[in-house]
Here is the input.
Amino acid sequence: MHKIADKLMQVTARLQQASQQAGRGRDAVRLLAVSKTRPADDIRAAYACGQRDFGENYLQEALDKQAQLADLALSWHFIGPIQSNKTRPIAQAFDWVHSVDRLKIAQRLSDQRPEDLPPLNICLQVNIDGEATKSGAAPADLPALAQAVNQLPRLKLRGLMAIPTPSDDPTQQRQAFGRLAQLMTDTNQRQGLQMDTLSMGMSGDLEAAIAEGATWVRVGTDIFGARQ
Here is the structure.
């Protein structure tokens, strides 16, 4: 567990250094610890170090861990693909959803969000590179999707998420993240929206994402180690 503490400190230092180099404030970027496939004890160890936000891809696994960690004040983010028949438990059990890519899913999440909970924070996933095998709305479809989601009563449209084509070239990394940032700016202006969140950047490219305006970076391996 000391290893998780050490790795978490290293990632936090990277975030702070990247933010400083980009001329952004110390608290401009938040860390989402991607805890998919990790046991509840790993999450508990990260919590002991001050980490509060955790991202999960697999619904049943996440629900099991939530039950085991119910004594902790955690914020849960769903970041994986969403099937229509899984929207109810997601609407009931999560604080954020980063992976909404079509209106049908958003409508179901809104309809199924309990009235006693705050509106569900939503990021729209964009297929920023047009990859045939990747989830996400096409950039051309985003304005209409964002406008429609913004009207749903039990959701709060926060921003955009993307997983660009992997690249080791910082210039290419920044270009992809820059396209997503510009897309949010353009959509806000044209649709009269107030999105404020860019969920982008992972272990291998978080510096480029922060340089282009990321507000959430999603890091798993560099906190918890290689998957078992």
